[in-house]
Amino acid sequence: MLERLELEAFLTLAEELHFGRTAERLHVTTGRISQTIKKLERHIGAPLFDRTNRSVGLTPIGHRLQEDLRPAYEQIQAGLTRAIDSARPAPSGLRIGYVGAIAGQVVYQAHHLFRSREPGCRVQMREVQLIEAVARLRNGEVDILVVHLPIAGPDLITGPVIICESRMLAISTDHPLARRTSVTMEDLVDVPLGRVAGVGPGDWPSDRWPDRTPQGRAIPKGPEVETFLEAQQLIGAGTCGAIVGAHVTRFNTRPDITYVPFSDAPQIDWAPVWLKSNNTPANRAFARTALEVAQRVYVAATH
């Protein structure tokens, strides 16, 4: 029978392939990890890792053991989390913030299902603008923020991805690119990109308003905006363009704006996010509910 440290040390080292990082994650010394792995290898009767001065890699037996143990370990962890959550008092309230129409639709649909499961929990929902979203989360105005990823911050927990959607260029209908069936990231050299005022790469993903194309060419900077409605006015007037998610073709159509899909850009992911200091059962339960709702209703509609 494996001891807990043996199991966690093996699975963590199999993921990190680095003794130092494994020790940091498990809050023990590197020597303790090395001793534990050696003990496990003696128990197995074969090496689980190939070690050199420069690298660590799994042996074939190690690969097989990882494949066998990982699902069981994750199931045990999930079971413990559910048991702990069930033992705690029901939450009295939950405040949900969301950015954009697609996130709002998921939140309101999930709210009804969540309330049926947690009737004693009062849920408040509010739309927040991108310029203020993370600040509202960090200052405690909302418990969960449903928003597009990624968000940087060691103080944040990102829940399950609930929506994946294609990336599109919002451009004036009079712009030459509006006549294209698709665009590439290199086409952005001809498009000043609008950006959210006061939000920098450290606060939000720079891939929504990149400075350069994948080939290193400069992308013109467009005006700063505070709301999507403001951005639409500028886009329609031909002042700038914007990188947006495909849901805008359902929620934000206008005769003066054309949405052209990118052929070479990654999708945009959406997820619930909350503070590590506020990692409550209610937050995790709502995140699971949002995923359930989104998988059933919205995934097919966002591609």
UniProtKB/TrEMBL annotation:
<keyword id="KW-0805">Transcription regulation</keyword>
<dbReference type="GO" id="GO:0003677">
    <property type="term" value="F:DNA binding"/>
</dbReference>
<dbReference type="Pfam" id="PF03466">
    <property type="entry name" value="LysR_substrate"/>
</dbReference>
<dbReference type="InterPro" id="IPR036388">
    <property type="entry name" value="WH-like_DNA-bd_sf"/>
</dbReference>
<protein>
    <submittedName>
        <fullName>LysR family transcriptional regulator</fullName>
    </submittedName>
</protein>
<feature type="domain" description="HTH lysR-type">
    <location>
        <begin position="1"/>
        <end position="59"/>
    </location>
</feature>
<dbReference type="InterPro" id="IPR000847">
    <property type="entry name" value="LysR_HTH_N"/>
</dbReference>
<dbReference type="InterPro" id="IPR005119">
    <property type="entry name" value="LysR_subst-bd"/>
</dbReference>
<dbReference type="InterPro" id="IPR036390">
    <property type="entry name" value="WH_DNA-bd_sf"/>
</dbReference>
<dbReference type="Pfam" id="PF00126">
    <property type="entry name" value="HTH_1"/>
</dbReference>
<dbReference type="GO" id="GO:0003700">
    <property type="term" value="F:DNA-binding transcription factor activity"/>
</dbReference>
<keyword id="KW-0804">Transcription</keyword>
<keyword id="KW-0238">DNA-binding</keyword>
<dbReference type="GO" id="GO:0032993">
    <property type="term" value="C:protein-DNA complex"/>
</dbReference>
<comment type="similarity">
    <text>Belongs to the LysR transcriptional regulatory family.</text>
</comment>
